[in-house]
């Protein structure tokens, strides 16, 4: 037979508490930060330490579960009669499990199904954090699931886990499609929901996940953004623009009759800082183009992950920062390795000079945790402006907003991820075998390397046709060799 009780607790004497006598018993009295007065019974433990003792405001139910093990479950009730009603329900469920009417998993899923969805999302987010998920997924996935739960359910929202159904989710996805949300973005919401549902099953919060049955949108038929690779000339112009733009904009007069002219006063220290910022930005773009790294992957690389002394200079990409979660060694071309080495030496020299100025210990090497390159959080906006400065894109102001135009005659666009497309395309153009290019791109499917990350416009298809062997003509004469 189960019982309900208030659980006893003890804790150290709160700071600033005074001990008074109430009804013949020593009692601690103190105030919380918000001014609320609190009191608790005082006791002395076996080690002679003064502590306070109390009981929980709500009752705890103690009973034998479906496996016959004594279990304590918080009832959440301050009233004893209500707590006993909760206990009776728990004992009835335990009897159903022992009788084989329901399973322990079904019982657990039933109890979890009545809890607020926010509690499950917080637990899932903590799981992702412990698992080591990337920051992007850690913040985006729970936020997307929460948005669906708040907006789905016929406008009422999905408040409980048991209300998260296929019908409610697909209705929400259809409404977003009618509003113009792309198929790729809708699939992103679906992926987050499926991952959340699978986690709930593994943790006994759901007996089975219905979310895996949510239909996938055809993103090939609804592609909103088709990227293109940059040509050699565009790459040179982009790197030059990235290097020169910070200082050039600072030297440009912004107001008055001479607006737009070069001639603004800039201190020598500012010139050096802006020149270094431009050189670092150009080095970021060059590294992305010559390694195929994604923006977030490059941002994660620290000094400790750089190896210039091995047979092949490379960057060590940790699994937790790679999209595929496998980890990789990213080979560096010799000229890029030389530039990165020089950049690290310059960074160390600056750190040593600053230490001497502050009269601090002079470092002999860079800290292992220091980032190799400082990839700014606003790199997408910076990249757009560098494209415009290089003449590859245009920026217009409409209604107080900057409108970027960077599509070609075929409607394809250039963004920061297009540098990875450029990497894959130039590998193919250089005649690198598909299997090698696939390894360099770190793709699991070679069709992704060949069809998505290769820009056919930059390939010499005509030259490839001319390289075919000479064949006999239909007139009986041999075709001239090429």
Description:
The protein is of the alpha+beta class and 482 residues long. Helix content is 44%, strand content 15%. The chain has 15 helices and 11 strands. Strands 1, 2, 3, 4, 5 and 6 form a 6-stranded antiparallel beta sheet that branches. Strands 7-8-9 form a 3-stranded antiparallel beta sheet. Strand 10 and strand 11 form a beta hairpin. Helix 3 runs antiparallel to helix 4, helix 7 packs antiparallel against helix 8 and helix 7 packs across helix 11. The longest helix has 24 residues. The C terminus is likely disordered.
Q: Which structural class should the secondary elements be placed in?
A: alpha+beta
Give the SSE string.
EEEEEEHHHHHHHHHEEEHHEEHHHH
User: How does the overall form come out from the CA principal axes?
Assistant: extended
Instruction: Please give the largest β-sheet.
Output: 6 strands, antiparallel
Helix share bin = 40-55%
Percentage beta strand: 5-15%
In whole angstroms, the N-to-C terminal distance is 96 Å
Unreliable parts? 478-482
Rg of Cα set:
32 Å
Helices, by number, come to 15
Number of strands: 11
Quaternary state reads: single chain
Mean pLDDT: 85
Compact summary:
With 482 residues, the protein is of the alpha+beta class. The protein has helices spanning 80-98, 104-113, 117-131, 135-151, 166-178, 183-202, 232-251, 268-291, 295-300, 334-357, 379-389, 418-429, 434-441, 446-452, 461-466; strands spanning 3-12, 18-22, 25-31, 37-44, 50-64, 70-74, 306-307, 314-317, 328-331, 394-398, 401-405. The longest helix has 24 residues, at 268-291.
């Amino acid at each position: 037979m189960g019982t309900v009780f208030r659980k006893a607790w003890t804790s150290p004497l709160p700071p600033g508490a005074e001990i008074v006598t109430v009804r013949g018993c020593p009692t601690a009295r103190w105030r919380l930060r918000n001014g609320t007065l609190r009191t608790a019974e005082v006791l002395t433990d076996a080690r002679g330490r003064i502590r306070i003792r109390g009981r929980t405001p709500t009752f705890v139910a103690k009973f034998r579960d479906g496996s016959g093990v004594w279990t304590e479950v918080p009832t959440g009730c301050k009233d004893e009669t209500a707590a006993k009603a909760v206990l009776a329900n728990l004992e009835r469920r335990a009897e159903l499990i022992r009788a084989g009417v329901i399973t322990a998993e079904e019982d657990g899923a039933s109890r979890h199904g009545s809890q607020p969805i926010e509690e499950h999302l917080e637990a899932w987010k903590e799981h992702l954090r412990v698992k080591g998920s990337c920051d992007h997924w850690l913040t985006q996935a729970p936020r997307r699931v929460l948005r669906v739960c708040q907006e789905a359910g016929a406008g009422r929202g999905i408040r409980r886990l048991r209300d998260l159904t296929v019908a409610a989710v697909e209705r929400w996805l259809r409404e977003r499609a009618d509003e113009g949300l792309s198929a790729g973005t809708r699939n992103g919401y679906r992926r987050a929901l499926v991952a959340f549902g699978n986690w709930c099953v593994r943790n006994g919060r759901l007996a089975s996940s219905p979310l895996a049955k949510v239909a996938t949108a055809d993103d090939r038929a609804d592609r909103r953004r088709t990227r293109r690779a940059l040509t050699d000339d565009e790459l040179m112009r982009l790197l030059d623009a990235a290097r020169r733009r910070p200082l050039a904009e600072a030297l440009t007069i912004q107001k008055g009759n001479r607006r737009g002219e070069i001639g603004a006063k800039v201190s020598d220290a500012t010139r050096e800082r802006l020149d270094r910022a431009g050189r670092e930005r150009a080095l970021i773009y060059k590294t992305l183009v010559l390694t195929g790294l994604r923006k977030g992957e490059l941002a994660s690389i620290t000094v400790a992950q750089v190896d210039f002394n091995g047979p092949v200079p490379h960057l060590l990409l940790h699994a937790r920062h790679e999209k595929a979660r496998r980890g990789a060694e990213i080979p560096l071309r010799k000229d890029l390795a030389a530039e990165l080495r020089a950049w690290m030496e310059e960074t160390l020299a600056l750190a040593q000079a600053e230490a001497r100025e502050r009269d601090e210990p002079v470092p002999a090497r860079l800290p292992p945790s220091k980032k190799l390159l400082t990839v700014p959080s606003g790199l997408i906006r910076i990249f757009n402006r560098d494209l415009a400065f290089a003449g590859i894109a245009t920026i217009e102001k409409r209604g107080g907003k900057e409108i970027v135009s960077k599509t070609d005659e075929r409607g394809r666009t250039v963004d920061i991820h297009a540098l990875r497309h450029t990497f894959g395309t130039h590998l193919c153009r250089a005649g690198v075998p598909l299997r090698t290019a696939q390894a360099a791109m770190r793709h699991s499917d070679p069709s992704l390397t060949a069809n998505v990350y290769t820009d056919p416009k930059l390939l010499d298809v005509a030259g490839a046709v001319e390289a075919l062997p000479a064949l006999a003509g239909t007139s009986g004469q041999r075709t001239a060799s090429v």
